[in-house]
């Protein structure tokens, strides 16, 4: 992955620049607990270890099954800030100029890792919206009159999916089986689906079917999945005293 | 689902006596042994206008080994202050009730004992995302009491539930169609009719879920707030705020949506939201960038555009890489008067006058000594901790938590502040809490504690203040401390 490549480069580079690290005006308290607390002057340049740390944290946060959005956004913004201040042309009066040869190497490494980093972060954030689109649960009733946006609404282009009304026991519906044949459900654990219905085919059996491509368009797929979520809800016992 | 919410321990005596019944497997004992509580009376007199806080009670296991599920995640008094609710990471809600004044036991006046315990949220599995939905209770908010029963809203990351807590102390006897053991009587054997009579029984407190508000939040719910109209409430997640009617569960109205079309452009999230205590059309929400937006639902149905925008300009001299993280607001609360609001960011508490958007009217430093430690706090993720804050009943004092089980109180009138500690060692009955001090450098005085010795695992994130009296509840990991004012 892009991120880990960037990480490796930084560590190698860090060993070269070891001597100058001490001179950077950054809180070093955490590096040596025996040192007295250092009042933090506004750091002109972050240490490479701060960048490493931030990248590590971002990586770790994204690896969570459901990333904490606030944590993620704060990390990304901080990382961007660190990146921005590591630009070679920034005015850094307190930083001693690095030796020529490693400096040039460092600049190009920074430049390339910046681009990689930005691209990675951008694509990772974009992934989050894809996750949302896939699982957006429906609000079955759309109220046109009152103000505000009703959350969810009538999905467009139902077409052949009209038969999948939530009132029908659609998990056992024969037509549904046919629709699922084209969809690669291998990413979903088959055991989880089994108790809910006997109609769905267990396990990945696609093979060549995978390559046929989805016959449903994205909106129809969304609706289909939404309905399944809604059906799941129907199977729970109703609450008392509604 | 009818049986789900019943208080464990059933009809047996003991819930009011503070004994936790039932198979919940909880260790939360009513009181720590040897530290039985008493409130008020005796001791040193309070000095002037200063509040003299004293230990009253502590709830929870003493074990060093804390079960993750027992960690308290929210604390809230109800409108009268007679009930105190806590939620934990295990999805359970425990409600404590204040004992009535009893002439025969003057010293136990105001003691809180377990009233009801129930499992509010269970761990769920989102089949589409293959994700577990945490059962941790993020927030509890009480509804104003309208009849004999009590209602509260509790929420986890995705689902909000309305719970009804009601007492039953009578049962009917003498049915015609069934025996006392419930068996149906043969109708041909009934020769006379009788009127069932109500007989007293041991008090049973039942909790039942009355409404479940689900499937309206894609992101994690961080706040719920009941409107002053007592009919609607809002729920906020990272990117959206929804408005609900308490009677209607199958739809909600989205009133704020800050999700960018392109998620790559996401730079800010919603961190907290609250309705104004008196104006039912006004609410505020805070952001991860340290801003607060006040919205008026009358001006537009979609409140994406705010009516007021509160932000303090950044101090250029204290700018660092962590500036944004520490400016992220973790809690926003209106004062009881509705004239002010208070925000909590990582290092400070700020009081804002709703009529002045340019800067807060007061800034109180909670633990400024941490400013030089931000890098290490970033490394161990403490910098992302979300502290709450609360107002005293008269709005003259405010309180918030810190690390090392310290919590801070600020008197807005006298401009004095104090650091206190919630610990078992300082938990003698009716003992006054001794002010604590953190030593920031140089020679450490006798009772001071140095910054480096602070325990960052002991965080006080959740606190609550009785709406009318000087009684506070402080959640320290899995323990709930209750302190009272000496004069009280």
Description of the molecule:
The complex is a heterodimer of chains A (242) and B (488). With 242 residues, chain A is mainly α. Chain A has eight helices and one strand. In chain A, 49% of the residues lie in helices and 1% in strands. With 488 residues, chain B is mainly beta. Chain B contains two helices and 32 strands. Chain B has helices at residues 323-327, 374-379, and strands spanning 53-59, 72-77, 83-88, 92-98, 112-119, 124-126, 131-133, 139-142, 150-155, 160-173, 197-213, 223-226, 232-236, 240-245, 253-257, 270-275, 282-287, 292-296, 308-310, 331-334, 340-344, 348-353, 362-365, 389-391, 397-401, 406-411, 417-421, 438-439, 449-450, 462-465, 471-476, 479-485. Chain B has a four-stranded antiparallel β-sheet, with no helix packed on it. A four-stranded antiparallel β-sheet of chain B has the order 2-3-4-5, with no helix packed on it. Chain B starts with 52 loop residues before the first strand and ends with a strand. Chains A and B meet through helix 3, helix 4, helix 5, strand 1 and helix 8 of A and strand 11, strand 15 and helix 2 of B. Chain A: Residues 1-24, 137-160 are annotated as: Disordered. Chain A: It holds the Pfam family SERTA. Chain A: Residues 43-90 form the SERTA domain. Chain A: This is SERTA domain-containing protein.
In brief, what are we looking at here?
Chain A: InterPro entries: E2F-SERTA_domain_protein (IPR052262), SERTA_dom (IPR009263). The complex is a heterodimer of chains A (242) and B (488). Chain A has 242 residues and is an all-alpha fold.
């Amino acid at each position: 992955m892009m991120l880990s490549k960037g990480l490796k480069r930084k560590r190698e580079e860090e060993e070269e620049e070891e001597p100058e690290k001490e001179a950077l005006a950054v809180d070093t308290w955490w590096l040596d607990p025996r040192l007295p607390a250092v009042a933090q002057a506004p750091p002109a340049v972050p240490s490479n270890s701060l960048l490493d740390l931030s990248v590590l944290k971002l990586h770790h946060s994204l690896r969570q099954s459901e990333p904490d959005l606030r944590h993620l956004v704060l990390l990304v913004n901080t990382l961007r800030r660190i990146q921005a201040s590591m630009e070679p042309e920034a005015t850094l009066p307190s930083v001693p100029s690095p030796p020529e040869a490693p400096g040039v190497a460092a600049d190009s490494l920074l430049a390339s890792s910046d681009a990689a980093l930005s691209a990675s972060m951008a694509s990772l954030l974009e992934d989050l919206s894809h996750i949302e689109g896939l699982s957006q649960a429906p609000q079955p009733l759309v109220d046109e009159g009152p103000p505000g946006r009703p959350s969810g609404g009538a999905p467009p282009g139902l077409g052949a999916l009209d038969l999948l009304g939530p009132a029908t026991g659609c998990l056992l519906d024969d037509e549904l089986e046919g629709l699922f044949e084209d969809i690669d459900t291998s990413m979903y654990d088959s055991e989880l689906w089994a108790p809910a219905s006997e109609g769905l085919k267990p396990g990945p059996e696609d093979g060549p079917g995978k390559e046929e491509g989805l016959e449903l368009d994205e909106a129809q797929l969304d609706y289909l999945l939404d309905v399944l979520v809604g059906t799941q809800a129907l199977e729970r016992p109703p609450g008392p005293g509604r | 689902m009818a049986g789900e919410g019943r208080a464990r321990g059933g009809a047996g005596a003991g819930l009011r006596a503070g004994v936790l019944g039932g198979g919940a497997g909880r260790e939360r004992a009513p009181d720590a042994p040897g530290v039985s509580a008493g409130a008020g009376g005796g001791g040193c007199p309070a000095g002037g206008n200063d509040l003299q806080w004293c230990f009253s009670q502590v709830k929870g296991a003493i074990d060093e080994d804390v079960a993750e599920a027992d960690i308290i995640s929210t604390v809230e008094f109800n409108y009268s202050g007679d009930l105190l609710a806590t939620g934990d990471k295990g999805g359970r809600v425990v409600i404590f009730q204040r004992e009535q004044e009893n002439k025969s036991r003057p010293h136990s006046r105001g003691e809180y004992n377990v009233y009801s315990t129930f499992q509010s949220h269970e761990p769920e599995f989102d089949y589409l995302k293959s994700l577990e939905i945490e059962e941790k209770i993020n927030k509890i908010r009480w509804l104003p009491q309208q009849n004999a029963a009590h209602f509260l809203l509790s929420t986890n990351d995705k689902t909000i539930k309305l719970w009804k807590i009601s007492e039953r102390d009578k049962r009917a006897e003498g049915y015609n169609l069934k025996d006392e053991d419930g068996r149906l009587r043969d109708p041909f054997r009934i020769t006379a009719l009788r009127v069932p009579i109500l007989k007293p029984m041991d008090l049973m407190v039942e909790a039942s879920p009355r409404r479940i508000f689900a499937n309206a939040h894609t992101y994690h719910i961080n706040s719920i707030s009941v409107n002053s109209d007592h009919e609607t409430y809002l729920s906020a997640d990272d990117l959206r705020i929804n408005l609900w009617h308490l009677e209607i569960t199958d739809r909600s109205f989205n009133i704020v949506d800050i999700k960018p079309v392109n998620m790559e452009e996401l730079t800010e999230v919603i961190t907290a939201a609250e309705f104004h205590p008196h104006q039912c059309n006004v609410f505020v929400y805070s952001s991860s960038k340290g801003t607060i937006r006040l919205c008026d639902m009358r001006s537009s149905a979609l409140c994406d555009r705010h009516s007021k925008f509160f932000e303090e300009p950044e101090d250029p001299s204290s700018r660092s890489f962590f500036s944004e993280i520490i400016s992220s607001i973790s809690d926003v609360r209106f004062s009881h008067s509705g004239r002010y609001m208070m925000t909590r960011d990582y290092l400070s508490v700020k009081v804002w006058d709703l009529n002045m958007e340019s800067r807060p009217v007061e800034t109180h430093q909670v633990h400024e000594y941490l400013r030089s430690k931000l890098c290490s706090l970033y490394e161990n993720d403490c910098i992302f901790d979300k502290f709450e804050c609360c107002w005293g009943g008269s709005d003259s004092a405010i309180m918030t938590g810190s690390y090392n089980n310290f919590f801070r109180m600020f008197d807005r009138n006298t401009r004095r502040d104090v650091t206190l500690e919630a610990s078992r060692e300082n938990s003698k009955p009716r003992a006054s809490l001794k002010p604590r001090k953190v030593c920031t450098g140089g020679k450490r005085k006798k009772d001071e504690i140095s910054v480096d010795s602070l325990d960052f695992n002991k965080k006080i994130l959740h606190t609550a203040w009785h709406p009318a009296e000087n009684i506070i509840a402080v959640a320290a990991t899995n323990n709930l401390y209750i302190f009272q004012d000496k004069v009280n």
